[in-house]
């Protein structure tokens, strides 16, 4: 039966992007920034961050919520880049080697994360958040103590003055924007990185194709109802692990693409913000912990970054202080995560109560 | 051949291809530093004087070298060809000598230009 279209329903389900669009409609003229400048910034930022946000779609499909554990993939990507810089590789081969190095690391970390999440069913989001913190310790141990002592690092410029451990920040001299500049088109004075967008498009196609495969359908079934999926003979735990591995792997490639655009690595911080930022962007795009699509990714990155660019200037022009605009943006953007997670918890609780009531009425 | 064995063989083959691809990409994308030294070179009793009117043509812009000069040339890839253009101060005649260096995975090289131009078998210097 065809579902009846409800304006109210559409408004409620798209409330977050509508609020952000309204905020943007108010803040863009206030900022005084030109449309061309804003478009150029948005294109750069879409190319930089879309792949990272795309990595969150598959775990949502598998009913595992928003994968805060994607930071593990970002760590793997960074390890690949650090090693590539040490080996003195540059250009496109550097990105490919970094991806090759990052791939087994992110598969291993993804498996580990998926295994832990299987032990904490129903509490995946908070568990993956804490796994991110836990693995951050392991990452710091690896880069601060093992690199240069156990893992040979031949480039002394990368090492701390004590002789081991990687410096806090490092340039990517022969890697900076190699993917973006491989083929770029200048339209109305705006540089459009064709290859970067082609890579992002390829991953979008992969996600769409993957959803239609047997494993993709299994993931959807597991996401809807684990008990029913298990009853239908779907290996629930294996499917969930696979979802996290794919997410971690895409996050690894996403971090490599993102850092080549920036041209510099903040060795111990770059990956930390990636999880929160990507999840906030996805939610701003209208996704929820149970439902996320590719449209949500692009809309979210666009709106989230529009706020980044516009808020300080709007705050400065409106209130005389750029920092006030920034405070407001942080409050709204990250408040969205809190509200969304709260709604998710409330909905789950409501569903559970309804199920109990139904069970009790059947018993009676 | 059963399915499990075939899958495992495929996995091993993919891993090997990835490792081989990594090596190949590293070889293609590796940057090397070549230090060229234009000072007196002596080997097996023969002494080769520094060259005058020397120009080095590499992947980067051409660089002129005076006697006792040292320059750093940065190149990318498994091998590079350096061209030395020597103009005689007396006759003003020029001659070109090409030297192909296969670098592999080594990052830094230290070469004597008089040894290369003089046809020395081992132009590598150790600092």
UniProtKB/TrEMBL annotation, chain A:
Membrane association type: Multi-pass membrane protein
Subcellular localization, as worded in the UniProt entry: Cell membrane
Protein origin, superkingdom: Bacteria
Gene Ontology molecular function: any one: transmembrane transporter activity
Alphabetized InterPro entries for the sequence: ABC_transp_permease
Residue stretches spanning the membrane: 15-39, 51-75, 95-117, 129-151, 187-210, 297-315, 327-346
Keyword list, A-Z: Cell membrane, Membrane, Transmembrane, Transmembrane helix
Cellular compartments per GO CC: plasma membrane
A family per Pfam: BPD_transp_2
Name recorded for this polypeptide: Permease component of ribose/xylose/arabinose/galactoside ABC-type transporter
Species, as recorded: uncultured spirochete
